[in-house]
TrEMBL record:
Source species of the chain: Sporosarcina thermotolerans
Protein's UniProt name: Nucleoside triphosphate pyrophosphohydrolase
Domain of life: Bacteria
Matching CDD domains: NTP-PPase_COG4997
Length: 110
């Protein structure tokens, strides 16, 4: 039997059961949960980075977004509140649309 030891989506045990298989699961406590959410974000980011097509990239971005929603909820904010923080930061600091790559900053005190 393969061993996974990782956070999975809520309906995965049902999917496994519908396939005629059994699985062993348990519910994580808060520290375990946020640790596993963070690990899963790294896993999904690596899959996004390795995506060969835009369709695959979008699938991985959707997985990352689901994890961001979960992490936001864990930290006590709604997705709407998180979006408000993002938007306010974009107003103050900009987004990444311009594709600006900073090489260096000259120190005035040389």
């Amino acid at each position: 039997m393969p061993v996974y030891n990782k956070l999975v989506r809520d309906l995965i045990p049902n999917v496994i059961a519908l396939d005629g298989k059994t699985c062993v699961t348990y519910r994580l406590d808060d520290p375990q949960y946020i640790t596993e959410v963070n690990k899963k974000m790294h896993e999904e980011l690596a899959e996004y980075e390795g995506a060969m097509t835009s369709d695959d990239a979008v699938e991985e971005l959707a997985d990352l977004l689901e994890l961001i929603h979960s992490a936001a909820k864990f930290h006590g904010v709604t997705v709407e509140e998180l979006e408000a923080v993002r938007a306010e930061k974009a107003v103050r600091r900009g987004g990444f649309e311009e594709r600006i790559f900073l090489v260096e900053v000259e120190d005035e005190y040389v």
